[in-house]
Design the sequence.
């Protein structure tokens, strides 16, 4: 199906308008871009085209009206990012992974080496300036 040259035919009983089609396809395209598997066989490669085809062929489930409003409010309440940030704040040093511990050691050692290199570099310049006077 060539979306650009052909008009998209939608079933008015299932999808009540083009705006709804766009909203459904946009959400599905986002899911596809994050790795979801297509629900149809298609020659299309772009996630937006695949999403529109799936929506037109009635392969996607969606909710509307009051049920959609309730679902949206519930989704706002459960915020994964906030939950992860809270967990990070609660983490104690004993809970750090080995990789984090190794990284802290590496950064500490690197900082010490950088300070030593700076002292040597500026120490030599100060000695040269003192010798020139």
Sequence:
């Amino acid at each position: 199906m060539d979306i650009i040259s052909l008009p998209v035919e939608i079933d008015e009983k299932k999808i009540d308008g083009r705006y709804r089609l766009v909203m459904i396809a946009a959400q599905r395209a986002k899911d596809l871009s994050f790795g979801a598997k297509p629900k149809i066989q298609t020659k299309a490669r772009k996630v937006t085209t695949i999403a529109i085809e799936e929506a037109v062929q009635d392969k996607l489930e969606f909710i509307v009206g009051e049920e959609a409003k309730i679902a949206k409010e519930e989704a706002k309440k459960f915020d994964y990012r906030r939950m992860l940030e809270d967990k990070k704040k609660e983490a104690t040093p004993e809970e750090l992974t080995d990789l984090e511990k190794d990284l802290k050691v590496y950064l500490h050692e690197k900082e010490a080496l950088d300070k030593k290199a700076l002292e040597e570099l500026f120490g030599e310049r100060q000695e040269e300036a003192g010798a020139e006077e």
